[in-house]
Amino acid sequence: MKKPNVLVLRAPGINCDEETVFAWRRAGAQADLVHVKELIESPRSLERYQLITIPGGFSYGDGIASGKILGNQLNHHLGESLRAFVDRGGLILGICNGFQVLVRMGLLPGEDCDVKATLALNESGRYEDRWVRLRATPNCRSAFIEPGEELDVPVGHGEGRLVFDGGEASATRLRELGRIALEYVSLSGGAPGYPENPNGSIGNAAGLTDRTGRVFGLMPHPDRHLFASQTPIQNRDFNAETAGSKFFRRIVEQLR
Fold first, then answer.
1. Contact at 8 Å (CB) between 218 and 144?
2. pTM score > 0.85 for this model?
3. Are 100 and 67 spatial neighbours (Cβ–Cβ below 8 Å)?
4. Which of 32, 107, 159, 164 is 20 to 30 A from residue 48's alpha carbon, by CA?
5. Concatenated DSSP letters for 76-138?
6. pLDDT (tens digit, 9 = 90+) per residue, 109-134?
7. Is 129 left (phi over 0), alpha (psi -120 to 50) or beta?
8. Could you tell me the residue ranges of all domains in the chain?
């Protein structure tokens, strides 16, 4: 069976690129690491791929705002090519800094959306590195996740608080539209507070999708939960498939 072709974007400051390539290859995809300058020089190379991933890290040092410089670079040089890629059925995934890039580009929650989003500093005022539980929202329409699915994955960011113009009312609107794809949930079943919502995102939003469901981004890292030994959960089942492995595997299976 032919392996789907995945492009993993590399840029100055991105530091989760090799781990993301490993995750895709382990799931059964052919994953290529491509520098942003190579892609700018040859945008037609996108025709070889079914999925683009922008991994985590600190692209260009997050010198202005997280993901802003890379987002502007992609919009300026590759905006039309990336939008055409999605129009023909291609998928785009952004993880952590990659998610920030997609939001800065306007691809999430979508250029057609009347609600605008941005990312701000964590309410805690510091970098958050901890495990969280996510749940896909009931209205989520995404090629990447099933409604109601739960994932235990870690976060690692200092600027991950999703805010919307219009505040909670806009979060409710996005949830109704299915654009809020993932939310932070409480392990005890109650309303999540800190640290279950590690950054203070409005509406407990942890990930967004666009109208097509083919552009998807999340702040937490599924690429950091590929093995049971990576989780601090006691009495973990070392034979069970981890949340990260399932996440990548299912996407590969859909692309085949």
1. no
2. yes
3. yes
4. 107
5. HHHHHHHHHHHHTT-EEEEETHHHHHHHHHT-SS-TT-SS-EEEE--TTSS-EEEEEEEEE-T
6. 999 999 999 999 999 999 999 999 99
7. beta
8. 5-255
Relative to beta strand 91-95, strand 215-218 is parallel
The rounded distance, in Å, linking the Cα atoms of 145 and 220 is 14
What b/e sequence results for 159-194 when a residue is b if at least 16 CB atoms lie within 10 Å of its CB, and e otherwise?
bbbbbbeeeeebbbbbbebbbbbbbbbeeeeeebee
Q: What is the DSSP string of the chain?
A: -PPPEEEEEE-TTB--HHHHHHHHHHHT-EEEEEEHHHHHH-GGGGGG-SEEEE--B-GGGGSSSTTHHHHHHHHHHHHHHHHHHHHTT-EEEEETHHHHHHHHHT-SS-TT-SS-EEEE--TTSS-EEEEEEEEE-TT---SS--TT-EEEEEEEESS-EEEETTHHHHHHHHHHHT-EEEEEE-TTSS---TTTSSS--GGGEEEEE-TTS-EEEESS-GGG-SSGGG---TT--TTSPPHHHHHHHHHHHHH-
The per-residue pLDDT for range 156-214, each reduced to its tens digit, is 999 999 999 999 999 999 999 999 999 999 988 788 999 999 999 999 999 999 999 99
Which CATH code fits 5-255?
3.40.50.880
pLDDT of residue 64 exceeding 90, the answer is no
Contact 216, 98 (CB under 8 A): no
